[in-house]
Amino acid sequence: MKKQILFDNDGVLVDTEHWYYTASAEILSSKGFHLSEDRYRDIMIAGESAFLIAEEAGVPISETDRWRAQRNERYQHYLRTEEIAIPGVKEILEQLSHRYRMGIVTSALRCDFELIHASRGIVDYMDFVLCSGEYPRAKPFPDPYLLGLERLGGEKHETIIVEDSERGLRSAVSAGIECVIVHNRFTEKHDFSAAKYRIKTLEELLTLLK
After folding, report:
1. For a surface tag, which of 39, 62, 95, 187 has the fewest beta carbons within 10 Å of its beta carbon?
2. 4-7 and 159-163 as β-strands: parallel, antiparallel, unpaired?
């Protein structure tokens, strides 16, 4: 019997993956580097930065740090101006909140997360949110989800994780917690063979957990 749920954020609760990639690719393109979706997915699975392709070519980190700041500004512009809602998420969380304790464990920066969720009401159903830099090591290490489990105060067998990426799945598996993968077009080519379940939409989680 599951009693608590840990959610990833980007690609699970909001449709932001494409815009983060787009902002990264546009900044890199302006510097003379091409970041394909396939290369970006590989970098993302490993938990590396999109600017790895420039650093591999000899661009110093001091320079790519400036590019990251530009990317972050552009990404935040997209968060303010593009439609990133996934239909029905708030209503699904409202139903789940009657039976489960819930939290969000994300690789997003706190400033981006707060911008994303400023008026969505999603966090109203959560016991807590953990963002990038608020745990010792990022996904695919187990640290984010182990800390999430500690915040909920339950047991691993009572908990399920909802993810959309191979990196997140690896983190869940390393933490020893069952993981459900929800379909996301941007990550559909990832290796999800270690997932306990695969679902097409978050709404299917309601039936899965009955």
Report:
1. 62
2. parallel
Give bridge partners of residue 160 from the DSSP assignment.
Answer: 5, 178
| Residue 70: partners with Cβ closer than 8 Å, 6 or more residues away | 27
Q: CA 162 to CA 198: how far, in whole Å?
A: 10
* Annotation: CATH topology of 4-14+85-208: Rossmann fold (3.40.50)
Tell me the residue type at 114: E
Radius of gyration of the chain (CA): 17
Taking the CB of residue 55, how many other CB atoms lie within 10 A of it? 14
Q: pLDDT tens, 173-199? A: 999 999 999 999 889 889 999 999 999
Residues sharing a CB contact under 8 Å with residue 202, sequence separation 6 or more, in sequence order? 12, 13, 86, 88, 89, 92, 162, 182
Task: Give the distance between the most distant pair of CA atoms in the chain.
Answer: 53
DSSP letters spanning 4-40: EEEE--BTTTB--HHHHHHHHHHHHHHTT----HHHH
CA 3 to chain centre: 22
CB atoms within 10 A of CB 184: 19
pTM: 0.94
Helix, coil or strand: residue 63: helix
CA distance 14 to 110: 15
